[in-house]
Amino acid sequence: MTADRTSALLEDLNEEQSEAVLYQSGPLVVVAGAGSGKTRVLTRRIAYLIAQGVLPEQILAITFTNKAAQEMKSRIYELIGETASGMWISTFHSACVRILRRHAGRIGFTPSFSIYDDSESRRLIELVIAHLNMDHKRYSARAISHIISASKNDMYSPASYLGKASNEFEKSVAAIFFEYQKRLRDANAFDFDDLLLKTVELLKSNEDLALAYQERFYHLLVDEYQDTNRAQNELVALLGAKSQNVCVVGDSDQSIYAFRGANFRNLLNFQSMFSNAKVIVLNQNYRSTQNILDAANAVIEHNESRVKKRLWSALGPGEKIKIFRAGDERYEAAFVANEIVSLAAGKITSYADIAVFYRTNAQSRAIEEALVDRNIAYKVIGGIRFFDRKEIKDILAYMRLIDNIRDEISIRRVINVPKRKIGAKALEAIERYGEENSLTFYEVLLDIDNCPLPSAARSGVKKFLGQLELLRDLRDLPPKKIMEDLLDVTSYREDLLEEADEAGPLANQAMNRLEIIDELMSVAMEHEDLESFLSSTALLSPSDDLKSGNEAVTLMTIHGAKGLEFDAVFLTGMEESLFPHDRAMSDPEELEEERRLCYVGITRARKYLYLTHTYTRTIFGRTLDSLPSRFLRELPKDLVVDMSIHAVRASDTFRDAALFTDEPEGVIFGMGNASAMAGSRYSYSDIASRSYAEKTFTGSNRNHTKADVRRDHTPGEMNPFKVRDVDEINLFRVGDKISHARYGQGVVKSITGSDGDKVAVISFLDHKERKFLLAAAPIKLLQ
DNA sequence: GCATCACATGTTTTT
DNA sequence: CATGTGATGC
Length: 783
Fold this sequence. Notes:
alpha/beta; single chain; 6-stranded parallel sheet; 44% helix; globular; DNA-binding; 7-stranded parallel sheet
């Protein structure tokens, strides 16, 4: 390669980055802090390798999500063009599926195996528990599936799990584990964990294959290595054993998936796996302002078990971090929405540069409502996957069966969809017959004439099998064609159309489902063959739904935000028990993971960072007082500005009123937004744009029923303000700006009654009007 | 076998 | 709160 092209690849790289790109061969660890340009390093390194004569086929690049893989692919295409095709850039799971599809026969599966997601695997475990006559209360499928999954992530087989089982419970779990694996095999199916595990197993038990892949993937590059689990780590060890050309990139401070088996020590211990691995550290951050980095550094330094490092930026201090404390989650949401309006009116040109993060998906709702109110386009990433919807699962089950008729879970799912008179009783009879004659579920269906059943159910089964027979002939057609035919053959679409024609509340739902089916159809069109369609739909995650370029604010969990960046970031729900989450607070290791999560959240922001929290929050129907997150306390005071309203903080009801004692430097919330607020008020009832906002909502189809009117203020619960006398009451005039302890800022619309009975109607930021007795309302005049 | 209702139940993060 | 499950009645 010419010196020119090399220097083009190194352009705008710093010394360490260049070193990582150029490092010739042998194991390499790039310890890459947040925003330190690791994707740039990875893509340039790949381009450089190819320029050096490495064939694209010899490169395997592993990313964390399909979305990240897509991103990396397109960036490499930009660098080297078509040469890049032929290179494997995928997630661990997708890569394993590709390998398994080729060699499944070697481990007793066929290439058309099904992939069970969590809910399907749990369903199978339920069946096993019932089959073994175990008490389903004592052995909940949820808990057992957790245990089995964790064991698999640690590479335990049923036998080795039994070996270390020390009590009755664990022995029973082992029994379930054994039967579960048998049923998976009978169904020709892998669960998510098996995709990794069985690939390792395949390569370990077939030296020729191991050698072939070791030679084929002469260069291995793995991103986000801190989030690999044991199986993934072993796979890397296995594939890299011969060439030793393994480059892993990661940041142990950003390890946030321990709950599903990830172990950041895989990154720290990489050198013990590949001795004489070269270590390169990237500490310069190109993303965020120094204030944001200082905040992130300060928080993460509270973790005991970590390797010390400090990010720095050349971008200057930038703005301070804004803290806001709201009465409740609706006010918090109103604040976020208002700030977004004001950001978009000035500092930030596109909604796409703004993101709102939260710890749990359930928190999105209040924020969505506030955004809808202000007519701000948004998209929610995560929550329930598109592919988790009922109708999608039904159709996919049929498509799977066309490929893999032994798939018991899919058979059970659709054998009676549409209705074929095969109910619970019939299924029981089929199971019993199978047990008595040692037949798998599918084998009983083939022998249905001999199975004792009501005749209606028997002919239902025959009808089902007949339809499948018909559909299986279409196996080699494009997935879109298959899907169309199956909708016809099963009358699935017809039934929905009928339902949609009928009047009543169901019609709307049916219409909605038809639309969703159309969406699936367009996904099917992107694939040429059934198996590629099935593989990719099985492995897509909610974050893969993220479409770029949309002019919309992004809402997602902090987990979902990994690897992304935005000009402005709102970290909401910064409260004890929520973030750090209740379930993580008692265990120091889990608490440190929460802190890493916080670190990840903070470092997503380029320029503007907001941290918000509330006085009270309603979770699962209960309203609870909330305390500020300990992570807020860990922020150096000189980096933050408190935008909360003084009146609210004066309350002695709240134990932590002294958390931020500095005078706020910023304007009291709302002042800067007055015009924006007035503007949005008129667009509130704009139905057309509202439905746009809902359309952009890609995650689920939750309806936006406004949360019902809030219960009236309960005396004593939160009334930090004393009862007023007549003189004080008379200070309030129509048009006055006030702030309310719970609902925040508002304007007095009218006052009726006299003296101590005066009642004010106040309009709040959420555009709702509420009535208050002036003598007692927890409000305070502003200005 | 299926629809409907009441109740309970469990709720972090996700490849 | 919202979803799922279980019991009841048709």
